[in-house]
Amino acid sequence: TVDDSGARHQGRNGYVTQIGNAFLAWFGSTFSKSRINFLTLLCAGQVCYRINEYALKYMGEQGLPAAPIQALLKGTESVIDDAAGWEAHLDRLGIHLERHRRIATEGALLGTLAARGLTDLVVVSDDAGQFNVLQHALCWIHSERLIHTMLPLNEDHRQDIERVRDQLWGLYADLKAYKLKPR
After folding, report:
1. CA–CA distance from 60 to each of 5, 30, 66, 130, 170 (Å)?
2. 3-class state of residue 169 by DSSP
3. 81 and 111 fall within a common domain
4. Do residue 147 and residue 131 come from a single domain?
5. Whether residues 107 and 165 fall in one domain
6. Structural domain boundaries enclosing 164
7. 38 and 118: one domain?
8. Which backbone phi and psi does 52 adopt, to 5 degrees?
9. At what angle are helices 98-115 and 66-74 packed, to 10 degrees?
10. Which of 14, 7, 21, 5 is nearest to 137 (CA)?
11. 143 or 117, higher pLDDT
């Protein structure tokens, strides 16, 4: 699971990001809550920028135009070890638009995570956009909220919505019981 919240750091407004599961809780303090920030945190202190098939696929899915993608493919370096080197690489390739640089950077960070075997990592969140990477899933509460916001047009719809909500919470209860006593 992952979440972030506003927090004061060194006398400035910043953010704290929590990444964890049943066995681990990790907290990181930064001054950004962007997708680049989150991907950098997932790199766990070993940040590099890698152009590979996974990175290029992401860039295409995010609507990065063909010209910047072709420039990245023709670049002589496929792995760059630090942010300054990456920024200089984008400059050399003529990728100057902020949106293009952001998508390329996100893709290159995802390329690094893919090279480390993390493509199947499930990121469970509250649906904040910065966390919508890799295998994204909503937490139970936020999944149920989507159902709760549906507006029924008639009594049959209302009953259908209530049945789905009951099924969701029934599944949740079954999973909690299974966790306590696996069969």
Report:
1. 30, 28, 8, 18, 39
2. helix
3. yes
4. no
5. no
6. 139-180
7. yes
8. -145, -175
9. 50
10. 21
11. 117
